[in-house]
């Protein structure tokens, strides 16, 4: 059967993911405490109790704020996901994987088999346990092709499970719990679509991590980065078009639109880097093409920056992402002017229209 990464492996990436999981659990605990305190505040008429509960609420809210800031700091740790080659390259923005709670499907599925199909549920224990092991493994996918295959295998199994065990008329009474990738806020739904959507989100997120780790100073690395970011964009776009009722913010239409545009911009940046690697940059047309390509990268990053500044996305996206995207937009704008300028300054003899310019 497929295996995930060793959950105790001490790589930088796994340490980061462990810290995310711990923060997720703490956020969950604080939110439950807040819900209880709010209920008590509404229910009681005793002034002293109200004062005590209000104090507890302010304490819980400040704890939540600190935890969310800690999570934002982790989401800004872009260097952990980049390649460790000696060559200097501009960092790309990857996503951390969504965390989920363990799930015991043994009893619900056995009961459903007995009741719905009229067969002994106990006969299928081995298969159900294998399915649960696959779910456990896909929580820690390795950052390579094997990790992608693991997530896809689990997603395909969910597709078969959906048609046989989740009829629209009946519920298994099982809740699927997942944490928001960027805020750590827990969400749960009975619908298997939430589980499928969350796995697809992680498939896209893993592609972003694979893209970010490539050595973009080499042609093979650039090609792999382009492929990974394109596939990430495809996964987030598919999610946006097919899973419209997700309860978590990271899977809302506004967030997914932003993620698709961000991935498209990162593809475009890699295409520019590929062009600088492949072409001799000392002739007029090559420099003009680089100027055009840089202007295209500026356009897509400018669109990402606008999208990140929208009301529903602005407070949600890590500040470092918005800053990075803004810097890249300005950087590529400058590069487009630079390449156009050196084309005109250094190659006047090669410019076909140069002699026809009016004299001043």
UniProtKB/TrEMBL annotation:
Keyword Coiled coil: yes
InterPro entries cross-referenced by the UniProt entry: BRO1_dom, BRO1_sf, HR1_rho-bd, HR1_rpt_sf, RHPN1_2
Coiled coil region boundaries: 57-84
Keyword line: Coiled coil
Domain of life: Eukaryota
Membrane-spanning segments: none
Keyword hit for DNA damage: no
Positions of the REM-1 domain: 6-80
CDD domains: HR1_Rhophilin-1
Signal sequence range: none
Residue ranges of every copy of the BRO1 domain listed in the record: 91-360
Protein name, as recorded: RHPN1 protein
């Amino acid at each position: 059967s497929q295996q995930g990464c060793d959950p105790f492996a001490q790589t930088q990436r796994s340490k980061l993911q462990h810290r995310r999981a711990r923060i997720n659990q703490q956020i969950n605990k604080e939110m439950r405490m807040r819900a209880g305190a709010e209920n008590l505040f509404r229910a009681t008429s005793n002034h002293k109790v109200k004062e005590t509960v209000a104090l507890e609420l302010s304490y819980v809210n400040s704890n939540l704020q600190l935890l969310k800031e800690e999570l934002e700091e982790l989401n800004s740790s872009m260097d952990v996901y980049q390649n460790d080659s000696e060559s200097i390259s501009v960092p790309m923005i990857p996503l951390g994987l969504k965390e989920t709670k363990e799930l015991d499907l043994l009893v619900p599925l056995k009961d459903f088999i007995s009741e719905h199909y009229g067969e002994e549920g106990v006969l299928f224990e081995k298969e159900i346990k294998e399915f649960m092991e696959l779910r456990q493994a896909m929580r820690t996918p390795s950052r390579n092709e094997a990790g992608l295959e693991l997530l896809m295998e689990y997603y395909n199994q969910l597709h078969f499970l959906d048609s046989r065990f989740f009829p629209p008329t009946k519920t298994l009474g099982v809740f699927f719990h997942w944490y928001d990738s960027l805020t750590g806020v827990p969400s749960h739904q009975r619908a298997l679509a939430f589980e499928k959507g969350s796995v697809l989100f992680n498939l896209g997120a893993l592609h972003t991590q694979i893209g970010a780790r490539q050595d973009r100073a080499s042609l093979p690395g650039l090609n792999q980065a382009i492929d990974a970011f394109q596939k990430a964009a495809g996964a987030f776009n598919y999610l946006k078009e097919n899973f419209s009722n997700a309860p978590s913010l990271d899977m809302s239409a506004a967030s997914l639109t932003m993620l698709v545009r961000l991935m498209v911009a990162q593809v475009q940046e890699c295409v520019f880097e590929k062009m600088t690697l492949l072409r001799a940059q000392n002739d007029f047309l090559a420099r003009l093409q680089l100027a055009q390509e840089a202007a295209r990268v500026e356009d897509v990053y400018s669109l990402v920056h606008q999208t990140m500044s929208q009301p529903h996305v602005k407070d949600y996206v890590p500040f470092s992402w918005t800053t990075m995207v803004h810097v890249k937009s300005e950087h590529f704008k400058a590069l487009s002017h630079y390449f156009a300028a050196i084309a005109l300054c250094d190659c006047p003899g090669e410019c076909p229209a140069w002699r026809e310019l009016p004299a001043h």
